[in-house]
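Field notebook, page 359. I keep forgetting to write these up properly, so this time I am using the form the group agreed on. The chain and the ligand, zinc ion, are recorded exactly as supplied. Prediction of the bound pose follows.
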Amino acid sequence: MFSRSLRASLNAMRLRAFTLLFFVMLATFSRAEKQAKHPTDILRVFFIDVEGGQATLFVSPSGQSFLVDVGWGGHDFRDADRIVAAAKQAGLTKIDYVLITHFHPDHVGGVPQLAQRIPVGTFIDHGINREFTPEITKLYEDYQQVLVQHGYEHIIARPGDVLPINGMDVKVVSADGDVLRTPLRGAGKPNELCNTPVDYPEDKSENARSLGIHITFGRLTLLDLGDLTADKEVELVCRNNLLGYVDVLVVSHHGWKESSSPLLVHSILPRVAIMDNGETKGGSVSVLDTVKSSPGLEDLWQLHYSPEGGELHNTQPGRIANLLGKDEGKGLELTGGRDGSFSVMNERTGETKRYARPQ
Ligand SMILES: [Zn+2]
């Protein structure tokens, strides 16, 4: 038999334990609810293998999607289907924005096929084509026809414009041969690398008209200049570096030597560079070396092994999505946090490398 006072103190202990349990459960439920509302406060970027073209899919935490270029046409819908597969993996049924950097076949060629495979909201480009070869003229006409047939929204972007994409800040830094004239936030310091004179030939093709973008997600920054050539890169970083530093560089022009000059790469000092080269396209020795020798670079990733680069110049095999002669269309996926941390996953091996947030 318990005394009355012992029973009272047992009851008080039970009440305290129950109250504690109640608040623990409340905290757990509210945390779970918060996580359910914001299940993934991350930026996902899929580097899709379109065999030496470009197709890079950005998906913001809100689920809004933004595709930079669509790869090649032909090839029995190969590139459109690879883009749709990445979109499905991200849980998308529609691509909100498609940006065409320029009107070459490896960037715009896949538009008619993509339009047949998945709904698209808005197309963004640099304005009219100014390269009048029969091939490029035809590609541009086909693209225009798709815009009209499907009644897509269409934006012509200029340097300095901020694109209306929710969940990330996308600023245009080059378009139609013009480049940014005022620095990005925090950038604009005089650049010592400009003291050594360089003379890059003027590129008169669509490459130099590439629509280049700078993306900010919290503290994480990414730069994608399409196939912008070295003569235009100089204008972005000399005499003042208008771009500042970036965390992730999408290596321009598939790693071809006409772009990704040491002046550009060593001015913006990427932590990680991702090269969308093909097995027989891009991946020049000089660019592989420029990127790998960039001060502070932690890793170069490549969509393909470059035969020109050989054992000496390619990055390590674990950072390559498709090895020589084993092309399975594997991609790379970057996952970024607002604190500036990010990771890159190699679809071929399933291995992920994490990059800590900057101090
Ligand atoms: Zn290209």
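OBSERVATIONS:
- The pocket of zinc ion is lined by residues 53, 104, 106-107, 227, 253-254 (CB under 6 Å).
- Residues 4-37 form the longest helix (34 residues).
FOLLOW-UP: compare against the apo run.
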